[in-house]
Amino acid sequence: MTIGRFAPSPTGILHLGNLRTALASWLSARAAGGRWLVRMEDVDGPRCRWDLGEAQLRDLAALGLESDGPVVWQSGRLADYQAALVALHAAGRLYPCACTRKDLQLLASAPHAEDGLRPYPGRCRGRAWERFEQALRLRLPEGAMAWEDRLLGPQTDDPATLTGDPLLFRRDGCFAYHLAVVVDDGAQGITEVVRGADLRPVTATQIRLQEALGLPRPDYAHLGLVVAPDGSRLGKRAGGLGLEALAARGVSSAEVLGWLGWSLGCLERPEACRSEELIQAFDWAGAPKGEVRVPEAWA
Ligand SMILES: [Zn+2]
């Protein structure tokens, strides 16, 4: 049984890029006759807000996208993340990292630094274990690995050059994103992960973490980002591209859904529709791989 998921962080509104990912993940699960779950990734400290998560769920419902099970909030799952850390420590895979943010910036000479992605160079690998109240990193195995993207095809990545040993537990006492996402995908039995291309470079690292925890590998599909009409990153403009802001300019949820469905290759023209009407036409083989530009009239 296919089980897909959409996992936003409740730190702002869902803009067109987020909504497109939500719809694609829903369509992929529905087209396979499977289930679709929503998970709130709210372990990232004070920027996460309960009310923003509720607003996101309302926007998803307005598009006809509702979780087939209870919405999981990661802040309620800390015991599972702690258990995963204990297991990784027992397997000798964790080491404490004493690097400050400044240390890491000075060390970063990486080819990917311009993307904001700075691989950790393993500076603390030889550091002795003291206790769980430290920043903790996963010791990755050496070498590149192959994985398959349902949209982009076969991929080969060396996690060492993309992320380096990932941080799993932060000095401020928070569990890190990579740990929470991998543990939850495993616990929820997720079989396919559909998300934005900005997360493609961390996929091999997350697969290595799955392997370390003995979890199965889901299928992956990474969607091109939604960009401004001139092809530039949306940045702050994304805030004006949520359902509420678009409705204030006379664009209905059904029209947004039609545009999203068209952008995924389900419709010949962007025209108002309901989510169910898109299921039959959805096919990864026909979905565009590249970036998608917001309509001029909406930007
Ligand atoms: Zn370090």
Q: Helix/strand/pairing class, anyone? A: alpha/beta
Number of strands: 12
> In one word, what is the shape?
globular
* Computed CA radius of gyration, to the nearest angstrom: 20 Å
- Helix and strand succession? EHEHEHEHEEEHEHEHEEHHHE
The set of bound ligands, ions and cofactors reads: zinc ion
Please characterize this protein's 3D structure:
- The protein is of the alpha/beta class and 299 residues long.
- The protein folds into two domains: 3-75 and 224-293, HUPs (Rossmann fold, 3-Layer(aba) Sandwich), CATH 3.40.50; 78-182, HUPs (Rossmann fold, 3-Layer(aba) Sandwich).
- Helices cover 32% and strands 15% of the residues.
- The chain has ten helices and twelve strands.
- The strands form four sheets. The chain has a five-stranded parallel β-sheet, with helices on one face.
- A hairpin with a 3-residue loop joins strand 6 and strand 7.
- Helix 1 (16-31) packs across helix 9 (253-263) and helix 6 packs across helix 7.
- The longest helix is centred in the N-terminal third of the chain and has 16 residues, at 16-31.
- The relative contact order is 0.17.
